[in-house]
Amino acid sequence: MSATLIDTLLSDTLCLHATKLQKAHRDGHGLSASDCQRLSDELHVLRKLARNTEQELSVHRLEQARREGFEILEDEATRKLKQMIADPDGKIVRPDFKGGKA
C-alpha cells in the first residue's frame, strides 16, 4: 500500500482568500460586485469539499472504532473461554459440542 500525500487544497485556498481580503481591507479597497460573487461561488465549492472531507474522515473513524471494538470483544471472549475450560485444580475440561452423553 503506497502512502498518500495530504491534500491541502481546502486550507490553502481558504488561506489565500483570507490573505486577499486582509490586503483589500488594509489598502482601503472594497470588493467589487463581481469579486464578491466569485468569492461567494468559490466558498460554496470549498464548503462542499470540506463536507466531503468530513464524511470521509467520519467513515475512517467509524471503521477504526469497529476494529478496536472487535479486538476488545475477541480478547474478552478468549479470556472467558479460558476461564470456562481451565479447572481450578489444573485439570483441563474439554467441552463436548457434538451432543454426546456425559
Number of DSSP E strands: 0
Mean pLDDT, rounded to whole units?
A: 81
Strand content: under 5%
Give me the secondary-structure category: mainly alpha
Instruction: Give the helix proportion (percent range).
Output: 55-70%
Largest sheet: none
Question: Would you identify the regions where 5 or more consecutive residues have pLDDT less than 50?
Answer: none
Order of SSEs: HH
* Whole-angstrom Rg: 30 Å
Shape: rod-shaped
Distance between the termini: 52 Å
Query: What's the total helix number?
Result: 2
Concise synopsis of the structure shown:
With 102 residues, the chain is an all-alpha fold.
Characteristics of this structure?
mainly alpha, 102 residues, single chain, 0% strand, rod-shaped, 2 helices
Task: Explain what you see.
With 102 residues, the protein is mostly helical. The protein has a domain at 33-83. Helix content is 70%, strand content 0%. The chain is built from two helices and no strands. It has helices spanning 9-26, 33-85. Helix 1 runs antiparallel to helix 2. The longest helix is centred in the middle third of the chain and has 53 residues, at 33-85. The chain is rod-shaped and about 90 Å long. The model has no long low-confidence stretch (mean pLDDT 81).
Describe how the helices and strands are arranged.
Elements: H1 9-26, H2 33-85
